[in-house]
Amino acid sequence: MAPVKSRTLGVIAALVALPTAAAVIPGRLDAATTSWRSARTAGTGTTATLVRVNVTTARDDPSAANTDAMRAPGRRRLRGATCTNPGAGTNAYSLEGWRVSGPTTAHLNPAGGPAGAASVFQAAFNTWKAADANVPTISVMSDSSVSHQQADHKDELMFASLSGRNLAVTYTWSWGGGVYESDTVFNTNVAFFIAPGEGDGCYEGVTKYDLQDVATHEFGHTYGLDHVSAAFNTMAPTATLGETYKRSLASGDAAGLRRIY
Ligand SMILES: [Zn+2]
């Protein structure tokens, strides 16, 4: 029996539980937090509550991977990937307490992201779907009207400026009655690339983050999985330059999914 986190912990507890002090919500976003916590949608009369903010952080300093012209003075320049070939995953998993209730659509604004993001995101959702026949399909569609994370009954994907070592942030709201919404923001200040495949789990020499690696992790949150400390599971909370191993699920990632669905 896996532990199920209390739904009453809220955002503060979620942030406290994060593994590094650097994992903070960007100030630009923080200022609007109050309005996300309770969003009233005209016509439905229902209110959404922000139940979790999951932040995926870089184990490296992303700014150190930028070009010389862009990097901050005094920062160490990374000259190669910091990933290592992955070890074995574990059976560990942790559940968020929500599930995707049926087939749905993820609305993607591809602006600011690398070419091919839509197919990468679809592949990332499909990885979870492939692990359990009961997992609802999530279909990615382009939607240029997506501008920021908000509780609006649409799962939304976008690229925007996040601070610090944040690679991506997934916000999840509860609408009550088992209805949830998750929006994911990928950081435009981070150099993403799309590896041609998972390979051996680490692209040595690439000082960028694999978008599918990070997306597969984020969409684990969408489907209802929380972080685990097992470094080589997809639900490990940090990522390194050049790593791709999160693209495929560890035994615990799949076991957690089957537990939910
Ligand atoms: Zn995460």
Notes on the protein architecture:
It contains six helices and ten strands, in the order αααβββαββββββαβα. The protein is an alpha/beta fold and 261 residues long. The protein has a single domain, classed as Collagenase (Catalytic Domain) (3-Layer(aba) Sandwich). Strands 1, 2, 3, 4, 5, 6, 7 and 10 form an eight-stranded mixed sheet that branches. A two-stranded parallel ribbon has the order 8-9. Helix 4 packs across helix 5. The site of zinc ion has 6 residues, from strand 2 and helix 5.
How many strands appear in the DSSP assignment? 10
Which strand-content bin applies to the residues?
Answer: 15-25%
For the record, the count of structural domains works out to 1
User: CATH superfamily, called what?
Assistant: Collagenase (Catalytic Domain)
Helix/strand order, N-terminal first: HHHEEEHEEEEEEHEH
Cα shape:
globular
Could you tell me the CATH topology label.
Collagenase (Catalytic Domain)
Query: Regions with pLDDT < 50 over 5+ consecutive residues?
Result: 1-43, 65-77
For the record, the CATH architecture stands as 3-Layer(aba) Sandwich
How far do the termini sit from each other? 14 Å
Catalogue the ligands: zinc ion
List keywords for this structure.
261 residues; alpha/beta; Collagenase (Catalytic Domain); two-stranded parallel sheet; 6 helices
What's the structural blueprint in terms of helices and strands?
Elements: H1 10-16, H2 27-30, H3 33-37, E1 38-40, E2 47-58, E3 104-108, H4 117-131, E4 138-142, E5 155-160, E6 166-176, E7 179-187, E8 192-193, E9 209-210, H5 211-223, E10 238-239, H6 251-260
Parallel strand pairs: 2-10, 3-4, 3-5, 5-7, 8-9
Antiparallel strand pairs: 1-2, 2-6, 6-7
Helix pairs in contact: 4-5
The structure holds zinc ion.
